[in-house]
Amino acid sequence: MYPPSRKDFISLTLSDAHSHSYNNGKHRRQSCWRKWKQLSRLQRSLILLLLALILIFGLLSYPSIPPEWKTFSDRDEWLELNDREVKDDLPDVQSVLDLPAAKVPPPAAGSHVGPAVGPDPAVVEPKGPNIPIFPKPPIKSFPNKRGPPGMRKDGNISDTVVEKKQVQEVVEEEEGGEEDKEKKIVSWRGAVIQADQATEPPPSANGKEAAAPPAPADSADPLPLDVSGRTEARLEAVRDAFRHAWKGYKDYAWGHDELKPISRTFGEWFGLGLTIIDSLDTMWILGLREEFAEARDWVEKELSFDKNVDVNLFETTIRVLGGLLSTYNLTGDQLFLDKAKDIGARLMPAFKTPSKIPFSDVNIGKGTAHPPRWTSDSTLAEVTSIQLEFRELSRLTQDPQYQEVVNEVMKLVHKLPGKHDGLVPMFINTNSGQFTHKGVFTLGARADSYYEYLLKQWIQGGKTEDDLLEDYLQAVEGVKKHLVRQTGSGRLTFVGELSHTRFNPKMDHLVCFLPGTLALGAHNGLPGDHMDLAVQLMETCHQMYKQMETGLSPEIAHFNLQASDGQDIFVKPADRHNLLRPETVESLFYMYRFTKDTKYRDWGWDILESFNNHTKVPGGGYTSINNVRDIENPAPRDKMESFFLGETLKYFYLLFSDDMELLNLDKYVFNTEAHAFPIWPSPPK
Ligand code: DMJ
């Protein structure tokens, strides 16, 4: 027995490599095996050891191989395949890098509304004695938002980054730092992630380009250049986001209710061009005059309410009636008031019920109304969050019928039994006028805007309607007593739910309107401890974004009351979606206006970046997503809600703007869809 010579071994290998015949191959495999057996045990051990060392070395050195040298993993190939499928369906998909440069915006200076009166810079001091003052929660950061920090600093590929071949691209500056984060482009299966041009210096003023940064209304000293430059860059980022969303809507969904940006088509809900109407005042405020003009044109020539269609009273009131009234107030254009009167009158049949509690649905063509098919109940928030709009319609038309029907609802609810320290059940029956499903209390879905509108109606009416104030103050006490808790570990304050005396530590993202509303109340002279609670809840809502891998909040969060395992927030798989909702940004706007604490702006900026990173779709539009915990594939839901343009982007803009006269909160009150109405100069008749 003797080992094969090196020459034999090489010739064996080469001949194997070139053989395509099964028999030859088989024969050679056998002779190879024979030769292997002919080796001494020592020789075989040495060869095996050598192979093992090569394998270990290979595994250890794999992460440092430059990305372009790596081969695709199965998952990479799968992603690439899926991208291809999406592209095949959508022949015009453009890389975001190929998009034409964003249009230079018209000056936003014309968007000032309301008389120029100095702002109220008062920062509300804690005054009230009632609420337990919880210690401020430590700010916990979630370091893995964009991949392991070590890898990011090294300039290595982060876990959000995939090779160019996969239509996933990264543009990253050599140097680290905050600004550089904003230059990243990552895309995934059709939804993208665009380099944020906003962090670039704003275009120089040449008449057509962006206006100079508005002077801060609350300060005699001009802001330092870098601060004002950043402000303008952030405002421009919001305009860019709006233009991108609008482009998608215009290209694929024009005149329909909502854009489906991935499939590049539209969704219809009521068939009223919801996105256009919801966006009108946002375009006005952002100074997007061209876009506003085309939308106005559509309202004038195409919008008709004379349609045999069932609409939801609440949604149509807050989005359509609210959007038209707000735009009329901002522009003075009679077209919008005429349209508002038309839809307002068509919604009135909803109030013809035995109890005067309105039905949920109205056929605006036939003039008939009905409850949902499965019940004669209406949702409490829906019947008590239409008041600002109907009252404003009465003021503008001098026709009291609108305000009478909605005031009647508030009167009924005010004296109705079944409340729990000011907290209200979620349903009310349209026949009996009584609460149903008693014993369940939440500030989330189905009840949220009841609380919001108690305060806002009181403000709208010049703070004269005492029943509204009484109900609001009682409700806040009820919230503090029954629903507010802190997590065991990070001391995060949250608002849970009560189900027949059982506390459920669950909070909808919708509840994140509450910090803003509490702050607004405190600003209007209500107890200072409302502001303390607002500050704490704002922190929690911020953490609901910050602790998620995508930097975006889930629809629902669960909180941990135990200190033991150190984790404050849990998200159930079914609750991991994000619908581009506005509530946290809305509250950040109020908190910034009343405290001038710039951390609220920075938190808002992080959220805008996350929307751009994980929900922006190439070719136009933003999409809601299914999984805020999966940075690689957040799973687009293919829907851009009208409130993303009507509310979320508007509140971003107002949050970043230094112009405190832009919808001054001492002169305007926002409806629950972010449409602004003037605070009445005198009490209602
Ligand atoms: C909007 O239509 C309104 O803000 C409403 O009050 C709640 N739902 C959406 C936004 O989340």
From TrEMBL:
<comment type="similarity">
    <text>Belongs to the glycosyl hydrolase 47 family.</text>
</comment>
<keyword id="KW-0479">Metal-binding</keyword>
<feature type="region of interest" description="Disordered">
    <location>
        <begin position="197"/>
        <end position="226"/>
    </location>
</feature>
<keyword id="KW-1133">Transmembrane helix</keyword>
<comment type="function">
    <text>Involved in glycoprotein quality control targeting of misfolded glycoproteins for degradation. It primarily trims a single alpha-1,2-linked mannose residue from Man(9)GlcNAc(2) to produce Man(8)GlcNAc(2), but at high enzyme concentrations, as found in the ER quality control compartment (ERQC), it further trims the carbohydrates to Man(5-6)GlcNAc(2).</text>
</comment>
<dbReference type="GO" id="GO:0005975">
    <property type="term" value="P:carbohydrate metabolic process"/>
</dbReference>
<keyword id="KW-0472">Membrane</keyword>
<feature type="transmembrane region" description="Helical">
    <location>
        <begin position="45"/>
        <end position="65"/>
    </location>
</feature>
<keyword id="KW-0326">Glycosidase</keyword>
<protein>
    <recommendedName>
        <fullName>alpha-1,2-Mannosidase</fullName>
        <ecNumber>3.2.1.-</ecNumber>
    </recommendedName>
</protein>
<dbReference type="Pfam" id="PF01532">
    <property type="entry name" value="Glyco_hydro_47"/>
</dbReference>
<keyword id="KW-0378">Hydrolase</keyword>
<feature type="active site">
    <location>
        <position position="583"/>
    </location>
</feature>
<dbReference type="GO" id="GO:0005509">
    <property type="term" value="F:calcium ion binding"/>
</dbReference>
<dbReference type="InterPro" id="IPR036026">
    <property type="entry name" value="Seven-hairpin_glycosidases"/>
</dbReference>
<dbReference type="GO" id="GO:0036503">
    <property type="term" value="P:ERAD pathway"/>
</dbReference>
<feature type="compositionally biased region" description="Low complexity">
    <location>
        <begin position="113"/>
        <end position="131"/>
    </location>
</feature>
<keyword id="KW-0812">Transmembrane</keyword>
<keyword id="KW-0106">Calcium</keyword>
<feature type="disulfide bond">
    <location>
        <begin position="512"/>
        <end position="541"/>
    </location>
</feature>
<dbReference type="InterPro" id="IPR050749">
    <property type="entry name" value="Glycosyl_Hydrolase_47"/>
</dbReference>
<comment type="pathway">
    <text>Protein modification; protein glycosylation.</text>
</comment>
<dbReference type="InterPro" id="IPR012341">
    <property type="entry name" value="6hp_glycosidase-like_sf"/>
</dbReference>
<keyword id="KW-0256">Endoplasmic reticulum</keyword>
<feature type="compositionally biased region" description="Low complexity">
    <location>
        <begin position="217"/>
        <end position="226"/>
    </location>
</feature>
<dbReference type="GO" id="GO:0004571">
    <property type="term" value="F:mannosyl-oligosaccharide 1,2-alpha-mannosidase activity"/>
</dbReference>
<keyword id="KW-1015">Disulfide bond</keyword>
<feature type="active site" description="Proton donor">
    <location>
        <position position="315"/>
    </location>
</feature>
<feature type="region of interest" description="Disordered">
    <location>
        <begin position="105"/>
        <end position="159"/>
    </location>
</feature>
<feature type="binding site">
    <location>
        <position position="672"/>
    </location>
    <ligand>
        <name>Ca(2+)</name>
    </ligand>
</feature>
<keyword id="KW-0735">Signal-anchor</keyword>
<feature type="active site">
    <location>
        <position position="448"/>
    </location>
</feature>
<feature type="active site" description="Proton donor">
    <location>
        <position position="555"/>
    </location>
</feature>
<dbReference type="GO" id="GO:0005789">
    <property type="term" value="C:endoplasmic reticulum membrane"/>
</dbReference>
<dbReference type="InterPro" id="IPR001382">
    <property type="entry name" value="Glyco_hydro_47"/>
</dbReference>
